[in-house]
Amino acid sequence: MHPPSSPPNLPLSQAVCNVGQDVTGHDSQTAFLRHRLLFTGFIHGDYNDVNILVDQTVTDRGSEVHMSGFIDFDDAYYGCTVFDIGIAVMYALQSKTVSRDRAVASFLKGYGRVRRLNQLEKSCLYYCTAARFAQSLVFGLVNYASSKDEYVLGTQVRGWEALQEMWDRGQTVTYQKWEFL
C-alpha cells in the first residue's frame, strides 16, 4: 500500500481547511460555551474495529456477533462523549462488509439503546466525525512519510472517499442516510 500523492478528488490542504473552517466557524466564546454543554465522561479515544473484542454465537438463525470488550486504552481520557462517537462513526464509514451508511445507522441505533444523544450532541456529531477524518488522514500521511509504516495508512484506503461523500452531501442528507434525525 502506498499513500496517494494527492488524495482522490480532495487535496490534503483543501480537506483540512474545509473541515477546520466549518468546525471553527463560530467565534471562540460561542464554541467554548457549547463545548461546556456537552456530556462528558471517560472516553476510549481510539474506538475502531481493531480495538473491539467480539463474541460470535452460532444459532439456528445463523451467526450473531456481539461486542464483548475493548483493548488499547493509550488514548483514553475524560472528555466529551460525542468525540468518541465521532471516532466510532469515522471508522464505521470505512466498513468493507456492509454499506457505510448502514454501518453507521446500526452503530448509532445500538448506542442509542444505552444513551440518547441530546440535540447539541447530535448537531456536533457530523463535525466531530469530519474532524476525526481530517486528523486521521493527515496523521497517517505525516507518519508514513517519516516511518514508512504501512499500518498508519489504514484510513487512506477508504477514508478520503468517505470524507468526500459525507462532506459533499452535507449534514442534513448525511443524517437522513444514517437514520439519525
Automatic annotation (TrEMBL):
Any GO molecular function: hydroxylysine kinase activity
Gene3D superfamilies named in the record: 3.90.1200.10
Key words, A-Z: Cytoplasm, Kinase, Transferase
Gene Ontology CC, one term: cytoplasm
Enzyme class: transferase
Annotated Aminoglycoside phosphotransferase domain residues: 30-113
Cross-referenced InterPro entries: Aminoglycoside_PTrfase (IPR002575), Kinase-like_dom_sf (IPR011009), Pseudomonas-type_ThrB (IPR050249)
Keyword hit for Transferase: yes
KW Cell cycle (keyword) present: no
Record field: catalytic activity: (5R)-5-hydroxy-L-lysine + GTP = (5R)-5-phosphooxy-L-lysine + GDP + H(+)
Subcellular location: Cytoplasm
EC number: 2.7.1.81
Family affiliation: Belongs to the aminoglycoside phosphotransferase family.
Function in brief: Catalyzes the GTP-dependent phosphorylation of 5-hydroxy-L-lysine.
Protein name: Hydroxylysine kinase
Species this protein is from: Stichopus japonicus (Sea cucumber)
